[in-house]
From TrEMBL:
It comes from Deinococcus piscis. It comes from the Bacteria. InterPro entries: Arsenate_reductase-like, Thioredoxin-like_sf. Pfam families: ArsC (PF03960). Coiled coil: none annotated. This is Arsenate reductase.
């Protein structure tokens, strides 16, 4: 039986959509609320290696503007640390099933979700 892991927050519309998508298809969902349990550096690094740091960063979000990141020049390591500390900086949801990863809820992410369903 297929199983997916969804990283998100309860207020994330995209994370709720991903959870609903998989539950409708009877795929077992392991939901990780990033407000309760932060993501480990290794988990986040897996997504960064596949998509790149900028693809994971929600540049349109309020947290990005509030952190002043549109004006600051920060190293990749520093930015990764900020993303670990503040999940609001991430483009959610982050979805993983085995080696298949997806970020966000755009068409490419939904195609990856469909690939995760047996």
């Amino acid at each position: 039986m297929a199983e997916v892991q969804i990283f998100g927050t309860k207020k994330s519309k995209g994370a709720r959509a991903a959870e609903r998508f998989f539950k409708e298809r009877r795929v077992k969902v392991h939901y990780v609320d990033l407000a309760q349990r932060p993501m480990s550096k290794g988990e986040l690094t897996r997504f960064v290696q596949k998509f790149g740091l900028n693809a994971l960063l929600d540049m349109d979000g309020k947290a990005y503007r509030d952190a002043g990141l549109e004006y600051l020049r920060v190293s990749d390591e520093s930015l990764l640390g900020k993303m670990l500390d503040s999940p609001d900086l991430l483009r959610l949801p982050l979805v993983r099933s085995g080696k298949v990863l997806a970020v966000g809820e755009d068409a490419a992410a939904k195609a990856a979700w469909a690939e995760m369903v047996p």
